[in-house]
TrEMBL record:
<dbReference type="InterPro" id="IPR045275">
    <property type="entry name" value="MscS_archaea/bacteria_type"/>
</dbReference>
<keyword id="KW-1003">Cell membrane</keyword>
<feature type="transmembrane region" description="Helical">
    <location>
        <begin position="81"/>
        <end position="99"/>
    </location>
</feature>
<dbReference type="GO" id="GO:0008381">
    <property type="term" value="F:mechanosensitive monoatomic ion channel activity"/>
</dbReference>
<feature type="transmembrane region" description="Helical">
    <location>
        <begin position="20"/>
        <end position="41"/>
    </location>
</feature>
<feature type="transmembrane region" description="Helical">
    <location>
        <begin position="53"/>
        <end position="75"/>
    </location>
</feature>
<dbReference type="InterPro" id="IPR011066">
    <property type="entry name" value="MscS_channel_C_sf"/>
</dbReference>
<dbReference type="Pfam" id="PF00924">
    <property type="entry name" value="MS_channel_2nd"/>
</dbReference>
<keyword id="KW-1133">Transmembrane helix</keyword>
<dbReference type="InterPro" id="IPR011014">
    <property type="entry name" value="MscS_channel_TM-2"/>
</dbReference>
<protein>
    <submittedName>
        <fullName>Uncharacterized protein</fullName>
    </submittedName>
</protein>
<dbReference type="Pfam" id="PF21082">
    <property type="entry name" value="MS_channel_3rd"/>
</dbReference>
<dbReference type="InterPro" id="IPR023408">
    <property type="entry name" value="MscS_beta-dom_sf"/>
</dbReference>
<keyword id="KW-0472">Membrane</keyword>
<dbReference type="InterPro" id="IPR006685">
    <property type="entry name" value="MscS_channel_2nd"/>
</dbReference>
<dbReference type="GO" id="GO:0005886">
    <property type="term" value="C:plasma membrane"/>
</dbReference>
<feature type="domain" description="Mechanosensitive ion channel MscS">
    <location>
        <begin position="101"/>
        <end position="168"/>
    </location>
</feature>
């Protein structure tokens, strides 16, 4: 009997030790991964990185470290892992090839979130669309137009295209051109425009307001105006100036010309014959 126990102990003592070592590696590795991920997430939060990027990086590190832990545990048990690693590599390559377009979108999304050419709430113009950034995801950016239409733009397309960010700076310049009739008093028209601009609460005193004659057109004199305002008040100021300048012109008899066609009918004796 003692010989049998001795034989079993000699035969399986190595196996038992491997199981214990594998269990300890799994246990410490599992909790070590949690601690490491918690530390990495904490560091990224301190760097004010976008939460979408943090969650993505957290998922990639979590999956990668657990795969490494699994391979280590299997190797500790004495199981050959060469073929296992080869299968994982082949499967990973196949998945990457199959999701090639999606991976491009993810990479573009990460670039946008890190570079921050725009952030949530910015007003941008891209591909004939103008609207406010509603959400930036890893694959798509959601744009809400001013008439409340949702535009979904793939990040790889957005990252490779030219767009205009109207909210990047704190101040914007309102550029307008007002046409008046040749018979009107130019100086009076300029004075009325300046009065409307200076009385508006959204007008900034610096840089200085610009009101000058810019062009002599076929049927009108063009007066250009440039006035600075805070970005959030841009559209309000532009619309108010358009409306209030017209009212000021009407009060003082300044005429804004418009295209018209005069038709003259001549009645001659030859036509009657």
């Amino acid at each position: 009997m003692e010989k049998i126990f001795s034989y079993l102990i000699d035969k399986y003592s190595g196996v038992g030790k491997n199981f214990i070592d594998a269990f300890l590696i799994f246990l410490f590795g599992w909790y070590g991964i949690k601690i490491l991920i918690h530390f990495i997430v904490k560091m990224m939060n301190r760097s004010h990185i976008d939460p979408i990027v943090i969650n993505f990086v957290k998922s990639i590190i979590h999956i990668g470290l657990k795969i490494i832990l699994l391979i280590t545990v299997i190797a500790q048990l004495g199981v050959p892992v060469t073929s296992f690693v080869a299968v994982l590599t082949t499967a990973g390559a196949a998945i990457v090839l199959g999701l090639q377009d999606s991976m491009k979108g993810i990479v573009s999304g990460i670039v946008i979130l890190f570079a921050k050419p725009f952030v949530k709430g910015d007003i941008i113009e891209v591909n004939t669309y103008i609207g406010k950034i509603q959400e930036i995801q890893l694959l798509y950016t959601i744009l809400m137009t001013f008439d409340n239409k949702m535009v979904v733009i793939p990040n790889n397309e957005l990252a490779s295209s030219t767009f205009v960010n109207y909210s990047h700076e704190d101040k914007r310049r309102v550029d307008m051109t007002i046409d008046i009739h040749y018979h009107n008093d130019v100086e009076l028209a300029k004075k009325l425009i300046m009065n409307v601009i200076n009385q508006h609460p959204y007008t900034l005193k610096e840089p200085l307001v610009y009101v000058r004659v810019s062009e002599y057109r076929e049927n009108s004199i063009a007066i250009s105006l440039r006035v600075w305002t805070e970005t959030e008040h841009y559209y309000d100021l532009k619309d108010d100036l358009t409306e209030q300048i017209k009212k000021a012109f009407d009060r003082e008899g300044i005429v804004i010309p418009y295209s018209q066609l005069d038709v003259h009918v001549h009645n001659s004796d030859e036509t009657q014959n």
